[in-house]
Amino acid sequence: MAREECKALLDALNKTTACYHHLVLTVGGSADTQDLREELQKTRQKARELAVATGSRLTVALRDRGLATEERAEFERLWVAFSGCLDLLEADMQRSLALGAAFPLHAPRRPLVRTGVAGGSSAVAARALSARSLRHEAGGDFDVADLPELEREVLQVGEMIDDMEMKVNVPRWTVQARQAAGAELLSGVSSAGAISVEERAGPCDPSKALAATVFSAVLLVAVALALCVAKLS
Q1: For the purposes of burial, counting CB atoms within 10 Å of the CB of 180, is it exposed (0-12), middle (13-18) or buried (19 or more)?
Q2: 3-state secondary structure of 144
Q3: What is the pLDDT along the chain (233 residues), one digit of tens a residue?
Q4: How far apart are CA 61 and CA 70, in angstroms?
Q5: Count: domains in the chain
Q6: Is there a domain that residue 196 lies in?
C-alpha cells in the first residue's frame, strides 16, 4: 500500500514538474503574459506540496529496518526518481527567477524575445493542477512582487534536498535498474527486424510476378530483333 501511494505521488510530481518546465521556457518570450506568471506560481506551489508529501513517505519507508530486500530496492528506485524530480524543479525555479527579474512585464528594461511562440499556457497549467480551467486573480504588479517569494522557495527546495540526503543515504550509483540500459530500444529494433524478415519471407505478389515475366519477354524479343537486324546488315 505504501509503495503504491509513493508511486502515485511521484507520478503526480513528475507530471507537475514537467508542466512547470514547459511554462518556464515561455518566460521572457513573445508569449509571456501576466497570466503565465500567475500560472507559474500556482504550478510550483503544487509541485512543492507534492515534493513534501512524497519525500516524507519515502523517508519513513526507507528508514524502516524491517523492510524486505526487494521492497527496499523498489523504494530506493523511487527515491532516485524523486531526487531527479527535485533537482529539475530547483533548476527550473532558478531559471524562472533569473528570467522573471530580467524581463519584468510592466517596467521592461529590455524587450521580450520574439520567439514566434503564440497561444496561451493555461491548458498546461490546468493539467499540472488537475483542474479544468484556471481563474486568474493576480494584480498588475504580481510578476515583480512574486520574485522575493520565488527566491525564498528556491532556497527551501535546496534545503529540502540537503535534508533528505542527510536522513536517507541512497547513493544513486548503487541503485540497480530492473532492466538493462536501452532495453526498450533493443526490443523495438528486434520486433521491427522480425516484421521485416516476415515481410521478405512472405509469398510473392502475383501482380509483381506477372510484370516481371512480361518485362523479361519484351527484353528477349528486343534482343532477338537486334540480332536479326545486325545479320541482315
Answers
A1: exposed
A2: helix
A3: 688 888 999 999 999 999 999 889 888 887 788 888 888 999 999 999 999 999 999 888 888 888 888 888 888 888 888 888 999 999 999 999 998 888 887 765 556 666 555 555 555 555 555 555 555 665 567 677 888 999 999 999 999 888 888 887 776 666 666 666 666 566 555 555 544 544 444 555 666 777 777 778 877 777 777 777 777 76
A4: 13
A5: 2
A6: no
Structural domain including 171 reads 2-175
Cα–Cα distance list, 201 to 47, 59, 196, 209, 210 (Å): 53, 56, 9, 15, 19
Nine cell digits for residue 153: 522557495
51 and 149: one domain? yes
- The string of DSSP letters for 81-97 reads HHHHHHHHHHHHHHHHH
67: domain CATH number?
1.20.58
Cell of 177: 535498474
